[in-house]
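Dear colleagues,

As part of the handover before I leave the project, I'm documenting each prediction I ran so the next person doesn't have to rerun anything. This entry is a single chain, and its sequence is reproduced below.
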Amino acid sequence: MAKNTTILEGTILNEPKLRSTRSGVDVSNFTLMIEGEELNSSFKIGITAWGKSAVECAFRLKRGARVCVNGKLGMRSRVLYVDGVPEKIIEEMEVQAENVFSVS
């Protein structure tokens, strides 16, 4: 088994959005809600799918669907702007999805 592999099951919070990079690679992003077993232990995590998987996610998956995601856990940084001025850098965990399966 490869290092840094994660498997998550949860509910899609927003419609997967499909776009293409400047080099023409398809990419799709959505947010997954993971429900914890204890009260108030749920969390959200960003999911990014690439290529054919991105296209399939965008056309097959809908908000509210239960899915299982297999991929690599990583960090993403983005700049938060306030009135057009960079305010701070936000770092978020995300999963680079290798496989996304619908769960009944």
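Residues 29 and 86 are 23 Å apart (CA to CA). Strands lie at 6-12, 17-20, 26-34, 43-50, 66-82, 85-102.

All the best with the project,
I.
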